[in-house]
Amino acid sequence: MIDPMSPVIQYGFAGLSVVLLSILVWMVKSFLAEIKESRAAYIAVAKETTEAFSNHTEALHDIKAEVNRSAGLLTDVRDRLLERPCIIGAGDSK
Length: 94
Prior knowledge:
By secondary structure, the protein is mainly α.
């Protein structure tokens, strides 16, 4: 029977642990590189989203100004129409 504390077994375990440790280091390095690439993509998306929100906010301000202008014009037209005499005479209405 082989002694579990023999040098051959100990070297085998040491070699296996070195292989497993190097695989673990490689996986962590590749994971960190992937995070770095993802982070750059997320930053680009965040910048584009911020720009889109800015453009939409500006467009909403323009729409608000146009609505206010239109409301003023409609009020002016309403006032002018109310100033005019009615076409139907007072005695003709039934």
